[in-house]
Amino acid sequence: xxxxxxxxxxxxxxxxxxxxxxxxxxxxxxxxxxxxxxxxxxxxxxxxxxxxxxxxxxxxxxxxxxxxxxxxxxxxxxxxxxxxxxxxxxxxxxxxxxxxxxxxxxxxxxxxxxxxxxxxxxxxxxxxxxxxxxxxxxxxxxxxxxxxxxxxxxxxxxxxxxxxxxxxxxxxxxxxxxxxxxxxxxxxxxxxxxxxxxxxxxxxxxxxxxxxxxxxxxxxxxxxxxxxxxxxxxxxxxxxxxxxxxxxxxxxxxxxxxxxxxx
Amino acid sequence: xxxxxxxxxxxxxxxxxxxxxxxxxxxxxxxxxxxxxxxxxxxxxxxxxxxxxxxxxxxxxxxxxxxxxxxxxxxxxxxxxxxxxxxxxxxxxxxxxxxxxxxxxxxxxxxxxxxxxxxxxxxxxxxxxxxxxxxxxxxxxxxxxxxxxxxxxxxxxxxxxxxxxxxxxxxxxxxxxxxxxxxxxxxxxxxxxxxxxxxxxxxxxxxxxxxxxxxxxxxxxxxxxxxxxxxxxxxxxxxxxxxxxxx
Lengths: 263, 247
Ligand SMILES: Nc1ncnc2c1ncn2[C@@H]1O[C@H](COP(=O)(O)OP(=O)(O)OP(=O)(O)O)[C@@H](O)[C@H]1O
Ligand SMILES: [Mg+2]
Hints:
The structure holds two protein chains of two kinds. Chain A is mainly alpha-helical.
C-alpha cells in the first residue's frame, strides 16, 4: 500500500515536471478537433447555448419564471456536460494513447492531465455562455457566487482522480466503455440537471439524494440560485472527491506498469 | 558513467483471448517466442534469461529472425516494459527510435513535432529552439519542415525522427530497424552521427536485419533466437569506416 502510494506520487510528480508536454498536447488536441471549421472552438459555445435554449423551451415548468429556470438549467448542463465528457472520454483514454504509451516512457498521469486540461478548456467556452445566460436572465451578481466558484474549483480538484479511475476501469474491462457510455446517457435523467426536486415523487427524491452527481451540481448551482452556502452538498462532494483520489492513487501506484500490456 | 546491465531478464506477454468458437490449439513451432498456456489465457515468452553488460562507447547490433525478441528487448531497455523477471540497470539519458510514426502528430508541422518531441524528452522550449536550426539542417527537409507531418514520405519521416532524437544529445540511443527508409546519402550521414555519439562515450543499440548496417555501425553483436541469447560476439567483423580511414 505504501509502495503503491509512493509509485503514484512518483508518477504524478514526474508528470508535473513535464507539464509543458500535456499543456502543448492539450492545445494541439483542441486545435485538431476544430481544424478547418469556420467557428473553431466557438462551436462549443454555440452547442451549449443551443442545448440550454432547447431545454428551457421544452421543459420550463408551468407557472415558473423562465429566467430562474434558465439559470437552473444553464448551470446544471454546464456541470453535467463537463462531468459526462470527462468520464466518457476517460474510459478509452489509454487505448487512444496507445502509440504514445507503447513508444515513450511518459508517466501515465501526463495523459490524465492532458485530457483534464482539454476538458477544462472546452468547458471554458460553456462557462462563458453560462455567465452570459445568468447575467441575461437577471440573476444578481452577488457574494454567494464565490461559493459557486469554490464549487467549480472542487470539481476541478476531483477531475484528475475521476479520469484516472475511469481510465483504469476502461483498460481492465474494455466492456465498461460501452456500459459507462450508456449509463451516462441514462444518468442525465436520474440527475437533477433539468428537473427540480420537489420531494413529492419518491423515485425523484431517491434519484436526488442517492446520486453523487447531484451534489457536484448543487455546489455550483445552489449558491447562485438560492444565494446560500450548501454545506451538505459541499461535504458530500469533498468526501466523494477524496474517496475517488484514494482509489486513483492506489490504481496508479499498483497498476501503472501493467497498462502497456493491456491496451 | 554510461552503462547498461541486464541480469537474467525475462518478459512474458499475457494474451487475454476472447472466447472463440474456432478450432483450438493447432500449433506449429513458429519463428517467434514460445506460446504457452491454452484456452483463454495464453502467454508468449518473448525474452528468456537475457543477461549482458554494455559500457560507454559500445555499439551493439541486435540480430535474429522475426519475432526473436529484438523490439521487446529495446523496449525493456527504454523502460516501456517492466521485465517479468530479472533486473535492468541503466545509467545515462536514453532516447529511442522505434516505429517512425510513434510520438509524432500527423496534423502538426515538422517544426511543431520537433518541439513536442523535445518536450517529451524533458527539454525546455528555449533549449529546443536553440537546436531547431541544427535539426532542420541535418534532416535536409527544407521547406517541408513547415508542412504537416502527414504530408511526409516514410524516408522524410525517418529523417525527421533521427535528426530530432540525435540532436537532443542522448547518452544511450536505441534504434529499431528505422534506417531502411532513409536513402543512401542520409544513411551515410546518420552513420557518421552515430559514430560521433559513440565517441562521446555513449552507447548505441541497433536492431536490424541488415548485416551490412550492423557491420558498419556496431562493435558488438547479440544474436537472439526465441527470446534467448544465441551468441554474443564482442569483437566483430570489419569496420567499414576504419578500413576507409587506414587506407
Ligand atoms: N504486444 C504483444 N503481445 C503479445 N505478444 C507480443 C507482443 N509484441 C511482441 N510479441 C511477441 O513477442 C515475441 C518477440 O517479438 P518482437 O517484436 O520483440 O520480435 P522482433 O525480434 O522485434 O521481430 P522483428 O524482426 O519481426 O521485428 C514474438 O513472438 C511476438 O509474437
Ligand atoms: Mg521488431
